[in-house]
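C-alpha cells in:
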C-alpha cells in the first residue's frame, strides 16, 4: 500500500465522517442502505490498512471488500435508475454524488491503484448482506415502523417489494461478477 492509496482512503472516509457529524440524527441515517454502503466502504478501507500489521486478515478483508464494493455498485445503480436523492437537496448536490456516484468511483479507483484478490463465488457475501437488510426492513415495518423506501414498503405494496427483491437477487451477483471481471482486465 502506498501513500496515495492511504490519502484517498482517509479523504473518502473523512468526508463521510463530516457528514455523520453534521447529521441531526446520525444513528437514524445508518438505517438507510446508502449510509450503510459507505460505512461498509470505510470498514473495508480500515481492514485494508490493517493488513499491513495483520496479514492473517486477508480473507476477512476480501469478504469485506467484496461486500462493500458490490453494494456500492448496487446502491449507485439502484439510486440512479430510480432517481433516488440521498436527501431533500435533490439529485444534483455534492452529497448525492458522494453517496451515489463517488462511492463506486472510489472502489474502481482503488482497484486501479492496487492489485486485489477477487473471487466470483464471493458474490454470496453481498447477497447475504442484502437479504439481511431486507429482513431488517420487513421486521421493522411489521413492528409498526414506516418503510424507509417506498419501493420496499411491504405493507402498502407487497408486489413491488417482492419484485425489487427478485431483481436484486439477480443484479447483485452480476455486479459482483462484473467487478471480478474488471479487476482481471485491469491486472491482466
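Residues out:
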Amino acid at each position: 500500500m502506498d501513500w496515495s492509496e492511504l490519502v484517498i482512503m482517509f479523504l473518502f472516509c473523512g468526508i463521510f465522517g463530516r457528514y455523520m457529524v453534521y447529521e441531526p440524527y446520525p444513528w437514524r441515517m445508518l438505517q438507510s442502505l446508502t449510509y450503510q454502503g459507505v460505512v461498509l466502504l470505510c470498514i473495508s478501507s480500515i481492514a485494508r490498512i490493517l493488513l499491513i500489521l495483520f496479514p492473517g486478515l486477508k480473507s476477512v478483508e476480501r469478504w469485506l471488500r467484496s461486500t462493500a464494493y458490490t453494494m456500492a455498485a448496487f446502491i449507485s445503480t439502484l439510486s440512479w435508475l430510480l432517481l433516488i436523492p440521498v436527501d431533500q437537496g435533490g439529485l444534483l448536490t455534492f452529497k448525492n454524488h458522494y453517496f451515489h456516484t463517488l462511492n463506486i468511483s472510489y472502489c474502481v479507483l482503488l482497484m486501479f491503484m492496487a492489485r486485489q484478490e477477487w473471487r466470483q463465488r464471493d458474490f454470496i457475501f453481498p447477497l447475504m448482506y442484502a437479504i439481511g437488510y431486507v429482513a431488517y426492513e420487513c421486521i421493522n415495518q411489521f413492528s409498526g415502523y414506516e418503510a424507509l423506501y417506498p419501493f420496499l414498503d411491504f405493507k402498502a405494496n407487497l408486489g413491488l417489494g417482492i419484485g425489487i427483491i427478485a431483481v436484486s437477487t439477480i443484479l447483485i451477483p452480476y455486479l459482483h461478477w462484473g467487478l471480478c471481471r474488471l479487476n482481471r482486465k485491469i491486472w491482466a
